[in-house]
Structure formats: C-alpha cells, structure tokens
Structures
1.
Amino acid sequence: MRTVTFIPSYRKIDVERGTTVLDAAQRAGLNMNVVCGGQGKCGKCVVYIQSGRTEFDQQKYNRFFSDAELAKGACLACETFVQGDLQVMVPDSTLIQEQKILIDGLDNEIDFHPSVRKYYVELHPPSLSDPSPDLSRLLWGIQKNGGPVAEKMYAPIEMLREIPSILRHSDWKVTATIGLVPGGYRLLDLQENDTSSRIYGAAVDLGSTTVVVYLWDLVSGKVVGVASNYNKQISCGEDILARVNFARRNGLTRLQALATESINSAITSACNTAGIDRDDIYEVIVAGNTVMTHMLLGIDPAYMIAEPYVPVVRRALSATSSRIGIACNPNGGLLTFPAVSDFIGGDIIADILACGMGEREEISLLIDIGTNFEVVLGNNEWMFSCAGAAGPALEGGEVLFGMRANPGAIEKITIDPATLTPKFSTINNLKPKGICGSGLIDLLAELLVACVIDRTGRINTDIRNPRLRKTNHFPEYVVAWAKETDIGKDIVITENDIKNLIMSKASIHAACVTLMKQAGVSHREIATIYFAGAFGNYIDKKNATTVGLIPEIEINQIKNIGNGAITGANIALINRRARKTLDSIAHKIAYIELNAENSFMDEYTSSTFLPHTDLGLFPNVQKMLETCRIRKE
Amino acid sequence: MRTVTFIPSYRKIDVERGTTVLDAAQRAGLNMNVVCGGQGKCGKCVVYIQSGRTEFDQQKYNRFFSDAELAKGACLACETFVQGDLQVMVPDSTLIQEQKILIDGLDNEIDFHPSVRKYYVELHPPSLSDPSPDLSRLLWGIQKNGGPVAEKMYAPIEMLREIPSILRHSDWKVTATIGLVPGGYRLLDLQENDTSSRIYGAAVDLGSTTVVVYLWDLVSGKVVGVASNYNKQISCGEDILARVNFARRNGLTRLQALATESINSAITSACNTAGIDRDDIYEVIVAGNTVMTHMLLGIDPAYMIAEPYVPVVRRALSATSSRIGIACNPNGGLLTFPAVSDFIGGDIIADILACGMGEREEISLLIDIGTNFEVVLGNNEWMFSCAGAAGPALEGGEVLFGMRANPGAIEKITIDPATLTPKFSTINNLKPKGICGSGLIDLLAELLVACVIDRTGRINTDIRNPRLRKTNHFPEYVVAWAKETDIGKDIVITENDIKNLIMSKASIHAACVTLMKQAGVSHREIATIYFAGAFGNYIDKKNATTVGLIPEIEINQIKNIGNGAITGANIALINRRARKTLDSIAHKIAYIELNAENSFMDEYTSSTFLPHTDLGLFPNVQKMLETCRIRKE
C-alpha cells in the first residue's frame, strides 16, 4: 500500500500501487472535476505532484502542459499512477465548485448540494480480461464520473433484479440515480441512455390548514413550480385536536390518506405547471408539526393530545415514498423533519434552519405565531424552546371586528395624535370588512402613543373626540365609519378587545422572558429576533415592540422569515449538509413546559401592561410615552 | 462535560455531570453486566472509583460492600453519579463474558455473539416529568438492559405504527428484538411481556443438490435441530447449467420459488423436530455458490454461464426474509454470503471461514472438490483462488465401475504388494456395486506402490496374476470377483479409467501449483492443506499425496473440514465479528482465470504423471517408489 496525501486539505488515503491519482483523490473524498470521466481527454483534473514516485506517459502530458508547468509537477490525476508515497497539491480550480442558490425568503445564499443526483455513465462491456460483476462495473463507473465512492453505494435487491437487463438493453449507457441515505448511498433508479437532466425534488410545508410545495430542478438548482392547497384533512376536523379525536374514533387510515392526497395534489399541480413527469421526482422533504408528521406516516398521534403529551417518535424519518403513498418516483425517498416535543415540531426545526440561528454564536430569539405560538432562544451551542396558546385575538378571534388576514381586512393603521383620525390600508385595497392581527397590533400601539389608552389598556374617556364613545358595554374607538366600510357598520375596537389583545401579547412576551431567564440571557444580549409565520410577515416591527409583544431591541435587528417551514424544507432539499444537521439541531433543543414554570405566571402578570410593568426594559417606548405624561401635565 | 476514563481498557467518554457511571460505561461501549437493568438491585455492576468526584447514597452501599471494599472505591455503577472527571476500574467480573461454542466440524471454539438479540424491558410509563417519546423510552430501556447505544438503533416506519399500542397493552413490559444491520441496529420485533427466551436463527447451506439447515437457539447457543433435503430445483435441471438455461427460457420465478421452498421445508422440519415456532426465527444466513445465491434472490444468473462469466453482484446481501419468501419471522433478516467471482461463490467463502485460513499468518491451501473444484491459497493478508472442471472421474463418472458415494460403493482399498489381493470396505458394508472417488484414489495409489502401474498410469502386463487381465480394449485389474459383488459382474479398473483419473487429479494439482507460482510460494511454505466437501471427507490423505492430487506436505498437516459451507454459515450466524469480515475476505481474494494462464497448461502436463514429472517435489512418494525400482532390478 502507498499513502497519498492531498494538500491543502491534508486528506490521506492508502491505495495499492498502480492506482490512479484520480481514484485516490476520489476515495479520499475530494470532489474532482472530471468532465470526460477520467479518460485523459478533458484536461480538467490537473494536480501537482510535490513529492513521491509516479508513472505516466510523458508524450500525452506535453499536449496539456507547458515545460514550466511540467517542472512544477503538473499532471492529469486520471493518467498518473501511484508508485510510491505521494504528496499531491490539488488546486481549487480542479475541484468542483459548489453552486450557490438564493431561496425565497432568505437573504443569504445556500450551497447547492442536493442529496439525490443522477450520473450518466458509459461503461465498457464485460470481457474475459474484465469480468467484474454488473454492480461493481456500474458503481465504479458512477464513482469515476464524480459520484460517491463505490464501496459506499448499495443497491436494494429489487434493483439488482433489473440491473443486468437494463445495462445490456441500453448497450451499457445508463443513467443512475443515487440518493444519500443513513449509512451510505442508495441506487434509487437505473434508466437507459442519458436522462441526467431530469431529476427533481419537492420541498413540502405540511401545515394543518395549508400545504405548500416547491418543486426544484436538482440539476439547475432552480425552482420550477410552486403550488399550494388546503389540507384536505379539514374534512375530518378544523383543528388538530378534532382530527386526532376523529382518528381515535375511526382509525388513522383516512387522515393518512388525506395528508398524502393533499401533498400529491400540490405536487401534481406544480408538475403540471412545470411540464414535469412526477416519476422524475426522486426526493420529497416534508416539514410539518409533530401531529401532522405522525399522521402522514400513519403513526398514532393519540397520546399527544392529553397529558403527558407523548409523541411516538421525534427523529427525522426516511422511507421509500411509494410506501407512504407519495406521488413521485416509486423508489424516491421521503424525509420528514424531526421534532423536539409534541409542541415543537418539524415546522419549528425548519424555521430554525431558515433563520440560521443554529449556526451562529450570537443569540437569537425565534417566534412563530399562529393560534399557538412557539418560541426558541439560543445559538450554535444551546437552545431553549417553549410553546403555548396565544389565544385567538391575534388571529382576529375574540375581537368584535377582528378577522383573519383575508381581502378587506385592515392590515395597517396609523393615528394622528392630534385629531385621532386613523389612516389605514386593507388587503387588496377593498373597502374594510374588519381588522386582522397586524392591524390590531398597530391599533394598540397607535392608541397607546396617542394617549387614547393607558398602560393597562383602559380607554381615556375624558378625551372628547367623535371617534371615542362610551356604549352600554365598553368604551370604544371608531376605526372606520359605517359608510366607509363594506359591512355598513362602524368598525370599532372596544376596551374589552384591547384586554384580550393584551392577554395574547402578554403570554408571548412572558414565554420569551421565561426562556431568557432559563438561559440567563438579558434582552441586551439578543442579537436578532425572528418572526416566522404569516402573522410575523405583516406585523409592524416597531409597533410589536411598542406594545411589548416582544422584548425591545433595535428595530433593524427584528426580521421576518415568512413561511419558515417551506424555507427550511427548501434548504434541506438542496443542501445535504443542512439536512444532516436536522437531528442534531432537534437533539440540542431543550423544551421548557411553561405550565410547570412558576416564573412564567409571574412574568405573564408583569406583561399584561403596555409594554410591561418595568418600563426600564423598553427605553425607546418609555421615551415615546413621555409625550403622554407631558400632555397630561 | 466530564471525562470518564475506564481502565484497564482506557476507553474514554465525555458525559454531562450527573450521568450514572453505568450510562457512561455503556456509552463507552463496555458490555456491563446489569441483571436488574440498572435499578441498584442486583449488585452486579461493581466498579472501583480510582480518582475523581462522584455522588452516591452511602446507606445503599453498606448493603453491598464491606468497609475494605468501600475503602478501595467500590461502588455500583448504576447508582453512582459522575460529578468530576473520573478514573474508574472495571473488573473483568463486571463485564459480560462471552460464551464459547463448539460447532460441528470445527476443532476450535467460537465466541457466541449472534447478530440478533432479544431484550426484555420494563419501562416507566410516560409522565409530565418524563414525557419522552415512545421510541426514545423503548430504546433507552434496551440500552440500559445491555443493548446497543440508543442512538444507533432505529425502527422502520411499519414498526413505529405498532409501538404505541404494544407498549400500552403490555403495561410497558415488552420484549424487543434487535438485529445488527449495515450502519446500525434495527428493531425487528416488539412483543408483549417476556418472550426473551424464544429467539432462533437458521444457518443454511444452499447446495445445488442438497440443502442443509442448522437451527440454533440464540439464547443458549445450542443447535436445536438439523435437517436436509434435496434442492427442489432438480426438477428444472440436474446441473446448474441446465437450470440457468431453464431460467432463460421460462424466467426465474419458478427456480426462485423452488430455492425458497427447499430452504423452507428444511427449516420447517428442523422446527418440527425442535418444537419451535417458525416466527421465532429472526435470522437466516445462506451460504451457496454464486448461481444458487442469485437464483434465491431472484437475480438473473444468465450471464454467468457463458464468456465472460459475469455475475450481477458479488457482495454479501441482506434483505427482509419475508420479501424473499423465507419462512421465518416476517421481519427477520436474510443474509447471503458474498462471492469472489462466478466460480468462487459464497460456499467457498464459508469454507474459508470454517477453516480459519483468513485469520492466520501461516499459509494454507484449501481444496473443495466436486464435479468442479475450487482452490484457495493464502493467509490473513492475501489470497489467490481459482476454479476448474475436475472431470467426472472423481465422482465415479467416466470410470467403468465408478459410482457416487452411495451405499455399496467401495470406499477404501488396500492391495497386498506380494499377492496383489485387495482388501476393501464398502459404504454401509453392503456387497460392492462399484467404486466411489475415495476408493478410486486408493486404488490408484495402491496400484502404483505395488508396481502394478507405472508413473504414466500404464498397467504392467508382464506381471502374471489372475487379477491382471488383457482384454480386447484395455488392460485391467480385478478389484472384486463377480461372486463377491452385488451386480454379478467382476468389478475392475481399466487402464483407460486410470488415464481419466490421472487427468482429473492433474488438473487439481496443476491448479494448486499455478496459485503457488502466482503467490511465489513453494510447497514447503504451506502449513496446512484443507479438504472441503464430501469427497475430501472420505479421501485417504496419504494416498491423495501418493498419486499427486495435492502437493506433498506432512500428512498430519492435511485436514478435512467436511461441509465447510454449513460450518461457515453456522459461524457467521453465531458470531457477528466473523460475519462482518465476510465482505473483506471476499474482497481480498484475487481470482485467477486458469484458462488465461499459460503456466497452467504446462503444469497440467507435468502433473499427468504419478505423482508428477518432478519426483523431487514428492520425496516421500519417491522413497516408496524405490521398491518398484529395486524389484524390477
């Protein structure tokens, strides 16, 4: 055996004398650029022998290299044979450079390095001088064409049954699809002739309401189709609790089928848009919450909806797509995101991947708000998480004129502090029908800054203004007069609405502070706050701070990541390193049960003020509120 | 993190403060004896803290240890918590000792360390303070009971669907079956209550004529049943060539089904004898030649029967038994032995495992003789192999009164050199019907030493003796007079028979020498010659040397391993380390194509003498033959 050391990476490998330097480099895991497949034709695999004995054909080399280059030890790795121990310099230009990809909703680029790849190979047919088995011949061909090391690839028996006839029918010109699986690489498909341009992957956000699919061309690294539709499970129950109860009564079969149908119909419509055959999709990656993931895989979620809230499994799981009923290549792979607990599911792990907080030393706070909220605090070394019910107020429930973020909803509001006249915009610029979450947070902040409400949320009824009214029930502020609206009624916000909103924001803020206390982190140490989910996407960051929904930090350090679940799934689909970290991210996150923390209730009480009992934590808000005090005085 | 160092092995592991020493030891890979599963009850996990801070309950310890022991740092690993960096001495008595097993046909004992094991675990039900998922709870329980590290075990999705209800039905008392698979450990089965005493494995020799099954109790390490039957594929063709041609015409389905049926019926009869349920068999290991293995797995063997003789796959393959149709637990594993080439199959790899030649530095020569022969030369560092047609003579074909080794066959013969009267024994002591291979080799040797034939095999017709006759065709020697036989005819051996026998023995000897030349090894460097297969089992070793079937070495260095295929399969079944080496053994063996070696034909010609043209290679035979020369003179 001879030892070959590659610099600058200092990777070492022991090989038999007579091995090519290219083989040695590939076995050492270097991603060599070999356009011709190692036939000495393309001249791409240039390396420099720094020491040691090699064997090569001088004549061939004169074609490729100048005398000066030859003097430096230049040679083609594919045409140079190891004779003694070698030290070989591999210039950057000889390695395959990774493509960088910009993903929707991400500022930074991601290395394009998907987990499934196709390799077109032209093999020499077997002969008496080379009677190696079909599988070895194929795998060596794949390795020579830049694929994984042959010994690390394997073929399931079903594939071994097809290999001999495909190789011979195609005259030994085939396209192999190789997928990364735990412990190695799997031969997923073998097709006649060159189909290497047709390989796709689907990233899926499996939400309890909506399913979103991004279809990626895994050669070009481009998104070729996006589709979404309702989660068809809604027919078995609006919310998760109802669906789990449906499963308890009727079994999981129907819910499992509806989950796959929901994904399949989104995949199909994305395929139709892009003009792609579903059989060319070789990988589907699904981010969903813990219950959704269990249901998709047909695993019983029943024990998650009651104390002590126990999932069956938390890990990332992989399966052959066809066994789960997903519409793609029958041998394609399905991967689900791991979870931390019942309440911190794969969708939150995807958020974490999307915002990149697990890769940086600085501390970040991630908040995903829906009917429930999830909060994660941490960095590349540690993470704490918790979850709770935000109450329906932020989604427009329990607020008189609240509504979901549908067309006609007031989504942005400012109030002139002098006249108390509001200025608002609605979704799709329709006449207003109600107020959605982001509008309600604006309203809360603007009413506070305009001194219409005090820090407990009470409306100052001493102010004389036509928009401020006392009714039989609660004092109220008129946002839009009946004639301006689509509903023929004054759209108002009442003192009771404001109380409900404060309770919602208080539980989110208290959750943030509970994690911060757990980690011993003050709000000054938080470098970035990330909002995930649709709500976060539209919320006014300054107003979110003003009302004390989140700890006060610099406004430009608050960021929206939008649908982090689909972004995270996209990242895991196109970058195998990110995907490999999923389980370790999930493993690193400690889950804090808020109901078991006494400090949470204390903090909740302190947070039911605007922005908080302790104004020292919100110095900028304190400054703004000075005006109120001045005005009153 | 704290570092715990275990001596005398010097294994180190970093663990969190508060971890038990037992957990640390298990994570460091120590096979700790914990009968009670780490509950501080059995007192088996005694270790000695040599340095560092720990936490434990002194009162409990007084129950288990004397003051003197306590002074030495004695403690129970399961009840002692790591506080600082530790050095811990683990006495041998605290480690699980491996059982040693004697296998049929082997002189040395094998460590009993099967690849599948059952673990009975009693789990704490989930609670608010421990809401970990069902899978984690189960796997940690298995680890605590001496199983593999939890992170290295995985459960397929089909199993995850069953886990929650089995755990709850059984009140959290379950038996898990864990199997070693490439890259980790797989949860094969989960049963309610304690079934840990019921776990079996089957080793299978899948011969083209006969199928042999050994059924092992994988708890006690005992063979509980042995069965064999004909390979039912015989209905599609007597020999392999005929069967492959049958497959080319009719497809593989029938041959695949007959292979599994042959195995299944042997397994069933072994189960019936032992009173065992087939569902309690969790592993089946099959050693067979390359064509048999392909057929069993449903992989096309068609390209192996014509130039350039290409198998589809050479590696060891594993599959879920039920997908191949093998009658055992539906989630049980099937493993097939790897091959070197078309001609050197899994049966020969099993021979190598059985004789242990791949583990020793000294050089061995392995010869497996049937209609074809296979020869392997080498040691723990290198091996060469070749195969060829022995011709039918050694199996009794092309010899006038030759027959297979069936009842009534003359199997041993000696000849009085003075009177030329033979003494023989037959199989089952019946009246003779013919002569089988071992008898024919005896005859050849005895006729040579008695100077009846010369070194070219010609019968000396000058000798006057009633047993020596000249007929119209060839001179002949009468082994048994008609009246002594079962067939009413004189049983003779003709000069033509002798020629055919010499041709057979010459090709085997030439193959041995060709490998020796390839490896640069002289016959003096060969420490042991192993005969495998039924023929080898009955052959007289001295006579095999006398006729020059094999190189001459000390008689006591020639050994019979009998049915090496079943012995090798037995070893791989009960010893996971041996099993892990299968692919590396197969990988190490170079295959020499005899027809491509010029030296083979030269050597064959030199070997068509008795024992060889170069008597110097056979000094003992040379001495014996002196008598002939003396007598002639």
2.
Amino acid sequence: MTMEEVFAYVREDLEGVEQVLMDSVQSDVQLIAEVGKHIFQSGGKRMRPLLTILSSRICDYQGSAHLSMAAVLELIHTATLLHDDVVDHADLRRGSRSVNYLWDSETSVLVGDFLFTRAFCMMVDHRDMGILDLMSRTCRQLAEGELLELTKSGDPHIEEDNHLAIVRNKTAVLISAACRIGALLGERAEWEAYLADFGLNLGMAFQLIDDVLDYEAKEQVLGKTIGKDLQEGKVTIPMIRTLERCTMAEKDRMVEIIRARSQDSRHLQEILETIQKYDGLEYAHSKARYYVDKAKTALTPLPDGQDKSALLVVAEFVAIRTN
Amino acid sequence: MTMEEVFAYVREDLEGVEQVLMDSVQSDVQLIAEVGKHIFQSGGKRMRPLLTILSSRICDYQGSAHLSMAAVLELIHTATLLHDDVVDHADLRRGSRSVNYLWDSETSVLVGDFLFTRAFCMMVDHRDMGILDLMSRTCRQLAEGELLELTKSGDPHIEEDNHLAIVRNKTAVLISAACRIGALLGERAEWEAYLADFGLNLGMAFQLIDDVLDYEAKEQVLGKTIGKDLQEGKVTIPMIRTLERCTMAEKDRMVEIIRARSQDSRHLQEILETIQKYDGLEYAHSKARYYVDKAKTALTPLPDGQDKSALLVVAEFVAIRTN
C-alpha cells in the first residue's frame, strides 16, 4: 500500500469529514463563515481525521460518528493553530496566508475559540462519556503544552527531555487521542491502549520531523517560512543536540543568534552549517525513526489486514515525509 | 436584605468556589500557577458564581457540585475576559494590570485556553448531560457574540437591535446559564425556564449598566479606563441612542471621532456632552431598568423565601450598581 492508496481507501470518509467541517462553520455571523471557508479550503494534511477513520475501521466500528469525531479532532487542531499563529505572529499557514495576516489577530483568537466551541458541541452531541473524558484531558494537556513551550521560548539551555515533554503535550497527545477514539467508537477496550500508544509515538515522530523540516524544506512545499521556529525562539531537537556537542565558542555564537531572534538569512545559514557539522538533523531523523518503529510495534496485537497495513503506511510516511 | 447580607448568606459557598478556582490553576507549568493566582486574587464581582449558588438553593439542591459548577461559570467568563483583553489591547482589568499587560498577549491567549479546558474537564467530571448540553451551546453563543461584536466594531451605524443581539450573546446567555444550572442541579425542570429567563434579562441589564459605567464611573472604582469602549470602537446604547436623535452636524462629528478611535480626552468630553444633551445615559439606564423588572417578574412562580429575596436583591443591585 502506498500513501495514495491509503487516501483512496478512506476517500469517501475523508470527504464526509470535509462536509462536517464546512457545516461546522456555518453561522449567522458572516465573518465566521468566511474565515471558516478560508481555513478549511486551504487544505492541510488531515492527519488526525485520517487516523481516526483508520482506527475506527480496525476496531470494526460500523456507525457514522467517526466522521464527526474525526472533524472534532481537526477542529481542535485548527483552533490551536489559529492561537499559535497569534503567539508566533505567523504570516503563512499551510502555504496560504494565515488568518492572522489576512484578517487580524483578534479574528484569529476568536475564530479559534469558535472552532473549539463547535468541537465541544459535537462531542457533547455524541453523548459518549468515555470520549468526553479522553478529549477534555487531552485539551487540558494541549493547553499546558502550549504554555510550557511559551515558557521555554528562546531558552537555548532547554534539555532534550524538557523539549520532548513539550512535543508530547502539544502534539502527540492529540494524535494519540485521534487513534484512541477509534477503539472507543468500536468498543474495543482491549485495543485502546495499543492504539493510544501507536498514536502517541507517531505524534512524537510527526513533530520531530516537523522540526527538522523547518530547517530543510522548501518554502513552497512546507507552506511555512523556513527557519521560522528559530525566529520564534523555538529551540528544537536538531539545535538542542548541536548545542550539547559543539565547542564553547560555537555554542556562544549560536546562543547569541537564538537570543537575538535574528531574521537574517546569513545567521540562519550559519546555524544550519553548525547543525550539519554535528549531524543535528540526522539525529532528529533517527529519533523520529525510533518513535515510528515504536508506533508500529504497538500495533502488533491488532489483527492483520488492510486497516493495519494502512496504519503502518501512515506511520512510515510520517518518518519519510518531506512536507 | 442588602447586597452585603446576600454575600453573607452565601459566604461559605463563595469561599468554596474560590478554593475550586485556586485549585483549578494548579499546574506543573509554573506560568499557569502564577498567572492563575494573579487573576483570581485580583478579585472580580463573582456575579455568575453568586447566581449559580442562589439558583441551586432556591431549587433545593443538597449536594456540593454547585461549587464546581459555579467555578466553571467563572472560569469560562475569565477565559473570555483574557481573550477580550487581547482583542481590546486592554491594560487594566478589575482594577489590576491585565495579564496582557503584565505578561503578554500570548500568555493571555493561552492561559485563557487553559482556563477553558479546565472548565471543560470539570463539566465532564460532573457527568450531567443536561449541563453539558447547556454549557456547550452557551459557549458557542459566547464565541459568536464576541465575533459579532468584532464585526460591528467601530461601526457608528449599528442599530439598537443589532447591538442588543451582541449583548445577549456575549453576556446575557452566560448569566442565564449560571441561573439555569441551579434548576438542573436541583432537578427542578419546571423552574428551568423561569431561572433562564431571569438570568437572561439580568444579563442584559448587567451589560447595559456596564456600558453606561464606561462613560460615568471613576477609573479607580470601575477598574477599567474610562471611555475605553469608545477607544476600542465599541458603540453602545448611550451612543446609539444619541446618534439616532442628534442633528446631522452632531452626528457627523461623533462619527468622525468614533472612526478615529481617539484617545484624546477632549474628544471624549465632547462625545459625553452630546450624549448628555440627548439623555443617552438616562435612556440606557431606563432600558436596564426594563430588563431588571422583567428579570424580577420571571421569578414570580418560584417560592418566596430567603433565596428568592436574595435573587431579587441581586437583580436590584445590577440596576443601581456604580461599579
């Protein structure tokens, strides 16, 4: 199975999710409808909905609530992106101009709130206390993760473990929830922990690759500005690894550039060269590979078949993706 | 009964709510604990918790969940204030420096999100679908109200009905929910509509008086900067009324000042004089009185006694409050 085949396999469901997303931003308040349309037509990988759909299938869920629950995951994710963009003063998002840029930060904050309340309504409408328990805890962790990241912003002395705790809270727990919901929908309590574990590790890998791509990707492919993390004071694994291994003089120089939140491409180039010298990107890749392998192993107890194959393909894609 | 006697009557419960609020901002993320402490020690009227407590009592609720539900109302209210402060670039809140000012707008957005997720967890923990239904709908309306207000920001041609729809969505529905929860907790379905109606009308009056006080109150009493609404482009009832009645020349001049979002105290003075000429503040007061009377009437079917007296005192206080 290729990633294209995975998407073909769930196409109908993904289209259903798109419909739920578009419906969710219908409102008498025209601004909501406009901004919502812009957001959901700008694309996005729909990684979380994809995982919810596949997890529901492997747990043999026969209903249609996986579409709205997949949309809930995407709504929450999108709400955090809108608030992130305000925090980060981002101009680009998913290759399109950010809401923050096209409208203003006020709109970005309040539409984020609106999307979150829509997710809240949809979760309540589904009337499953297990899902409400999972999602309320997950949302709390997301908020803590974002605030922990803000606290550590621009700190060149952050340690790998601290950084990984941020990655776990701000990204991995939501991807874990996306998978776990499948077990809750399919009432396969015995598989819940495996899918949760799969998602958590996959989420770790996903964010690590995201951080690598911030240094590597072509702007038009990734849809974000390159080196943006650095300008925002986000010190990620390639940098943390390099700071642990480089000379005192190199470290001082890097710390200086990090603290200045330089927008100068020569500074970015200088940082990149030092990171390459100490194999910082390879190190991050190898950590991502470690998490992907852990994710795949977590699925071992689940039955073989097309759904499991698809989940494994998604996991592999996360490790090798270039955007 | 005086307002002081009402507070004495529910003191123990209100202290319980304070404890829940302080507990809710305990977190391994130190920033959350610090900001949370600042917010909840800065005071606030605790109008919503007060109403939840009194409504629970009149509905003869015997448990202790009214404390956490009262805290949920205050958490949601506080989250919206934090996001409002970012939208409005406010420096003061409840007479203290705003989070926005003391920390930064990023912190204000993300701590707002955190408080909201805490409320979400507490609601889910209570496991009452009726309350979850009510609160999810209410939160959606709040978000819509905020966005509607943003859309109309700086529009001198907004009509009274449109403005009242904003007031209803951004303020009154939450105060209505605070009262309605009492009926849900006490399982008094037959009184739910009355308490909802009481709260909705009280909420309308509360916001109208808030808008009047923006023109009238002493800065140290109200804890906000005077004339702030005007600088933020918020056109409220005293102004809407005046714009409907003044001469063309006066209207042009006021529109000019509104559009300029002037910070000049002479401009504020000029606006105030025109509003006074056309009894704009008296008009807003009379509308507030209308809603307070409607609120009081809504309680008619409920049993007389100390709880009802207290609710009526709160209603009267809203009409005559000076801060």
